[in-house]
Design goal:
By secondary structure, the protein is of the alpha+beta class. 26% of the residues lie in helices and 37% in strands. The protein contains five helices and nine strands, in the order βααβββαβαβαβββ.
Length: 147
């Protein structure tokens, strides 16, 4: 059975997962302490992780969401999103997530709609070029879902 669990002490316990979605540890360090951190398990095996932060009293943002590479395309990412949305339902009215161009389709399939874009985000905020499936990440695309 798939379960969502919350990390309460060592938020970097599954840093290998966090680094799948955000490849610079110093970038993760900028937000992780202020986030609630969750992980997805099935039969005691950790399958994915999510870090989310409050933006204001109406919105929160998924700062990091990743599923083990061996578990991609098996529905665990959608399941993790659904569980996070359920967790925050009633506390916030919407949830945001930022991604590069390659991530848009996944989040749209999860019910998110494009909200806004930050031009050159990945160039301005990372020391090295960031690539997703061989494509350099340039702009941060924000998507929003009502919950």
């Amino acid at each position: 059975m798939v379960q969502l669990k919350k990390l309460t002490d060592n938020k970097k316990k599954y840093i290998d997962l966090l680094l799948l979605a955000d490849p610079e540890e110093k970038a993760i360090d900028k937000y992780l302490n202020d986030c609630e951190v969750f992980y997805l398990t099935e039969n005691e095996k950790v399958l994915g992780q999510c870090a989310a932060i409050e933006i204001d009293k109406h919105k929160c943002e998924i700062k990091n969401l990743a599923v083990c590479k061996t578990m991609h395309r098996k529905g665990y990412g959608k399941n993790l999103i659904a569980l996070i949305c359920e967790y925050y339902k009633g506390k916030y009215t919407s949830i945001l997530v930022g991604t590069a161009d390659n991530g848009i389709e996944f989040y749209e399939k999860c019910g998110f709609k494009i909200s806004h874009k930050i031009k050159n985000f990945f160039i301005d905020n990372y020391d090295i070029p960031i690539y997703d499936d061989g494509v350099q990440c340039i702009d941060m695309i924000y998507l929003e879902k009502k919950i």
